[in-house]
UniProtKB/TrEMBL annotation:
Domain ABC transporter: 1-230
Listed CDD domains: ABC_DR_subfamily_A
Superkingdom field: Bacteria
SMART domains listed in its UniProt record: AAA (SM00382)
Keyword Amino-acid biosynthesis: no
Record-given protein name: ABC transporter ATP-binding protein
Key words of the record: ATP-binding, Nucleotide-binding
Keyword ATP-binding: yes
């Protein structure tokens, strides 16, 4: 799958801005970004549901939007909102989708039975979909999205309304699909989910601002993640708030995690900057470098330039 110069404008709003994207076969590619950054808009353009304002898209050899109708048979699409019928049973929902996809009765019967077992829904076949738990609805929606064995599965924040255990089980199911050759594109705003992807694109204001495997992005972080150990982490956070070169401050238990800007990429200089600021505030602390995580990468990649909005400090 490739997109080149992909853009989408809604009046004066540019939701996606000159996006270049390549997703390889059987890859689990993740879109990470805040709400409103263009993830959903991009996915809808890639599967032919939304016309782009500019750019080109090729998916599984099809040119989009020209071949969008032909592509539908080879992709699956799952949204964050449960989109099946609450007043139909689990089995009836899948039977309806099988008819829409053109499966004959024998194919449909075998495939539905297989998916009900795979996604732990066999004992829920006659239960109304509207009475399922969040995790069960999610598994039913996934079963519906892969009923026709798509080559590409697009998932738009599919785990936004389920508990951590259901999320883990869901991701196990996704990796099973990838192992069988299905290409997956998953949008998320959960850091732990983003770390599971084989490759990751970070979107910010419609632009792709980082692209690589999670480990590659963390190794290449152009900044210094630091850990501050002190008796008053809250006071330390207040003292460092607004310090030039400090991109992010996060309290974790009794520690304070600090991300220093790329201009402070020299670790020793970054440590000294933080220590001096804390000494000036009368706070005794130990400051040391720490291992980068994906949240550090996200903060660094989406950092706004000073005065970018015309505001004054």
């Amino acid at each position: 799958m490739q997109a080149r110069g992909l853009s989408k404008r809604f009046g004066d709003l540019t939701a996606v801005d000159s996006l270049n994207l390549t997703v390889r076969r059987a890859e689990v590619f993740g879109f990470l970004g805040p709400n409103g950054c263009g993830k959903s808009t991009t996915i809808r353009m890639l599967c032919g549901l939304l016309l782009p304002s500019a750019g080109s898209i090729e998916v599984l050899g099809y040119q989009i939007p020209r071949d969008a109708e032909a592509l539908k048979r080879r992709i699956g699409y799952m949204t964050q909102k449960f989109s099946l019928y609450d007043d139909l049973s689990v089995g009836e929902n899948l039977e309806f989708l099988a008819a829409v996809q053109g499966l004959d009765r024998q194919q449909a019967r075998q495939r539905i039975a297989e998916l009900l077992e795979r996604y732990w829904l066999a004992d829920r076949r006659r239960q109304l979909a509207g009475t399922l738990s969040g995790g069960q609805k999610q598994r039913l929606a996934l079963a519906g999205a892969v009923l026709h064995k798509p080559d590409l599965l697009l998932l738009d924040e599919p785990t936004s309304a389920v508990d951590p255990q259901s999320r883990r089980e869901f991701w196990d199911s996704l990796f099973e699909l990838a192992d069988s050759g299905t290409t997956l594109l998953v949008s998320t705003h959960y850091m732990d989910e983003a770390e599971r992807c084989t490759r990751l694109g970070i979107l910010d204001q419609g632009r792709l601002v980082a692209d690589g495997s999670p480990s590659e992005l963390m190794v290449a972080l152009p900044g210094s993640p630091l850990l501050v150990e002190c008796a008053q982490p809250r006071q330390a956070q207040q003292a460092l708030q607004g310090t030039p070169g400090v991109l992010a401050l996060t309290q974790i238990g009794n520690s304070l995690r600090v991300l220093a800007a790329p201009v402070q990429a020299n670790d020793a200089a970054a440590v000294e900057l933080i220590q001096q600021r804390l000494r000036n505030a009368g706070i005794q602390a130990q400051v040391a470098t720490t291992t980068a995580n994906l949240e550090d990468v996200f903060v660094s990649a989406t950092q706004r330039p000073p005065h970018s909005s015309g505001e004054h400090p």
